[in-house]
Design a protein that fits this description.
The protein is of the alpha+beta class and 181 residues long. It has 3 helices and 7 strands; from the N terminus they run E-E-H-E-H-H-E-E-E-E.
Length: 181
């Protein structure tokens, strides 16, 4: 089953100056969020395999859009993170089913590699809920200079029967990072 997408939001952040220090090149992150219909809203379903497949579809789409938003080669993505907000007629397990079993493989293909896990967060909430996502180095989760976060909020999502699924990608670490690798 293909995800029923209501909208996609792409947010690009560039940090050019931090603490009076020029950041050259700027530290950049792209967060791509899709608002999708939750096929299990309002009901308990034991087998969530359909959401595993939705996760694979949406993961690859978000990753390709994130790379394109930064206008770089896939291999130039250094860090990533993911998250989801389930509307109030769903359950937190719906987010887990989308984000974990099959989401990662197409993301790693779209960013060329990714040896380490994609850090994640999940929650339930209504329109305007803030989703804060951790980012880590795609090939070395313990690279301290790449441990970061980003957030996104959509004023009209998620509605009760929707899920906001998001992926963040970055072409570097935190600006002025200096605590070690």
């Amino acid at each position: 089953m293909k995800p029923q997408i209501r909208r996609i939001v792409i947010q690009v952040e560039e940090i050019h100056n931090e603490m009076g220090q020029m950041i050259d090149p700027p530290a950049r992150k792209a967060t791509v969020a899709a608002v999708i219909k939750n096929p299990y809203a309002g009901q308990y379903v034991e087998d969530l395999e359909l959401l595993y497949d939705l996760g694979a579809e949406i993961g690859g789409l978000l990753a390709r859009k994130g790379v394109a938003a930064l206008q770089i080669k896939p291999a130039d993505i250094i860090s990533y993170g993911k998250g989801a907000i389930v509307g109030l007629d769903g359950e937190i397990e719906h987010a887990a089913a989308i984000l974990h079993p099959r989401f990662g493989k197409p993301v790693r293909e779209a960013v060329e590699k990714g040896d380490d896990i994609i850090p994640s967060t999940k929650k339930t909430g209504g329109p305007g809920s803030v989703l804060v996502m951790p980012l880590t180095n795609k090939n070395s989760i313990w690279s301290f200079d790449h441990m970061d976060a980003t957030e996104i909020s959509l004023p009209d999502a998620p509605r009760e029967d929707e899920i906001v699924v998001a992926l963040a990608v970055a072409d570097g670490g935190r600006p002025l990072a200096r605590i070690g690798k």
